[in-house]
Amino acid sequence: MPRVFITGLGLITSIGNDVPTVTASLRELRHGIQVYPPFQKDNIPVKVAAPVRDFVTDSNDPEDWTYPSQYRIKREILRGMAPHGVYAWCAMQQAIADAGLAEEDVSNADTGLYAASGGSPQLMGYMLNRMHNVGVMRCSPLGIVAAISGTLNFNLVAHFKIKGASCGFSSACASSSHAMGYAFDDLVLGRQKRMFVIGAEDGNVDSILPFAGMRALSLQSDPALASRPFDASRDGFVGTGGAAVLVLETEDEVQRRGAKVYGEFAGWGQASDGHNVAISHPDGDGLVAAMRNALRVTGTPAESVDYINAHATSTPIGDISEARALKSIFTDASSRPAVSSTKALTGHGLSLAGAMESAFCAIALRDGFMPGSAHIAQLDPECEGLNIIRTTQTQPPAVVLNNSSGFGGANVSLVLKRAE
After folding, report:
1. What is the mean pLDDT of the chain?
2. What is the average per-residue pLDDT within 327-351?
3. Would you say the CATH fold of 268-417 matches that of 4-257?
4. 4-257: what CATH class?
5. What does the DSSP assignment read for 17-44?
6. Residue range 268-417, CATH number
7. Is 173 a catalytic residue?
8. Is 311 tagged catalytic?
9. Which of 31, 84, 178, 311 is flagged as catalytic?
10. Options 173, 281, 361, 383, the catalytic residue
11. Is position 132 annotated as part of the catalytic site?
12. Where are the domains of the chain?
């Protein structure tokens, strides 16, 4: 089967807006969580979030938005974008440069793009209110393409002149991991030679706060206590936004271009819980099956896995479900792989999570370290026996799993390996 490699990354995140800054944050366990000014109202119980820095996209008029000066977005392009579209645009520029791609490499029939986001609740709410209160003909003609869940692929495919496969993915917090998996399939089946995979979210009041109604968000006011996966006192996740872009290429393309690589994307597996619309199966049955499928199709023995970037979001139910799933796969307690959740640093990016954390795994493979699971004061007794690392480990991993789980019990496990 043809091999697939990661050749470029672009990152706009709460822990940094480029690969070097993010790498340093992962090594040093620097989090991006803060007391979030829009939440400081008496009727809002949630007080913290993990916003991206150096971007101001609060206004409903994109002409009021500001972003770092090294990027340029034409006014006519900006009008059709959501806030996370701007993040993704900037991350795309980074990834193209990082992979050393020429314009003809980006725009051709052999290069495709898969993207994932939840759309922009902020812009959708604004547009619908305007439609009802002012009149439908007073709405922006580009309001729909800026707001609905396909906005990422609409904008990026059109403006970067992508001519290969394109699609948007919607499976909640597993969305961009699904995009990764299906991009892999297109590459190994010979349908494409190169794929961009993007996950992004607004990460603002309208995209984060509705989860408070589910009792899913942390109510901590101290940023250092709010996101603490696997800790006995965790009480919910912290919302974040941003964008992550990965460039995936076939081995033939890597050799043709003489491209540098972060690591190999060896394959993936998926499965569903068939249990509940919002809550993971208590024993992680779907995630067990997803990991088992991923290991089987890639020919990877469980004992060869060195590190797992867990989905663990810091919710009481979800973390336990994943812990039980990991124990089901990695049965030998004396040789279990290192496990951490980088959501302790970034917060939970929803559709963004899978792509962002795949990028973190690629960095770990290239640079030879395993980021720790921050903010654990007392490990949940259910997690005892797992090798949950609390500090960054300098041992270079050779085989890494990245897990993602979404609403409806959708589970994806990705296998990444050090490039040989």
Report:
1. 97
2. 97
3. yes
4. alpha beta
5. SSHHHHHHHHHHT----EE-GGG-STT-
6. 3.40.47.10
7. yes
8. yes
9. 311
10. 173
11. no
12. 4-257, 268-417
